[in-house]
Specification:
This protein is an all-alpha fold. Helices cover 75% and strands 0% of the residues.
Length: 172
């Protein structure tokens, strides 16, 4: 929610829900900090059996980080090499793309250094697929490459979450 409402607070056109976006950003950020600061790492680690697929989870998180870097740097690098703005900026008429900032500045490092984003990848992938379905329903142009990325993100996140958390003991 912190990710989503950060985007909403910065990217959506000013509207009657603006103050709601800010409140949700603030509350979800506070909940995230509170939740993370109260994690008992030893208890969390001991809450999974020896067969928990830790190496597979690490691999999928690293793959997701690489995919996000490839997706967004493929849009950013042409600015430096050809002076061509990313299509997302041109279409949205914004100074930058908040998704580039949040994914490269927050999600990629979390993927590389922690497992916090395993469930987030599943929920965000499903949310992006939902957004894509609504865009198709509204006869808007949809990027097929991004749609495939969302399918992979949602599928991998869901599969890894089910597999990994299936090894969770009742003590957590």
């Amino acid at each position: 929610m912190a990710y989503t409402y950060t985007g909403a607070a910065f990217a959506y056109a000013f509207n009657e829900l603006f103050i709601v976006y800010i409140a949700l950003l603030s509350l979800s950020g506070a909940a995230l900090i509170s939740g993370l600061s109260s994690i008992d790492v030893r208890r969390l680690r001991d809450g999974f059996d020896a067969q928990a697929p830790r190496p597979s989870v690490i691999a999928i998180l690293l793959i997701m980080a690489v995919v996000l870097c490839l997706l967004w740097f493929s849009q950013i690098i042409p600015v430096y090499t050809h002076g061509t703005l990313p299509e997302m900026i041109v279409k949205a008429k914004t100074p930058t793309v908040f998704v580039h900032v949040l994914d490269l500045g927050v999600v990629v490092p979390l993927n590389v250094f922690s497992g916090f984003v395993l469930v987030k990848s599943a929920t965000m992938g499903l949310a992006l697929l939902s957004m894509t379905a609504f865009a198709i329903g509204a006869d808007l142009e949809v990027d097929a490459t991004l749609t495939l990325a969302w399918v992979a993100l949602a599928g991998a996140g869901l599969a890894m979450s089910v597999w990994y958390f299936g090894h969770c003991r009742d003590s957590i």
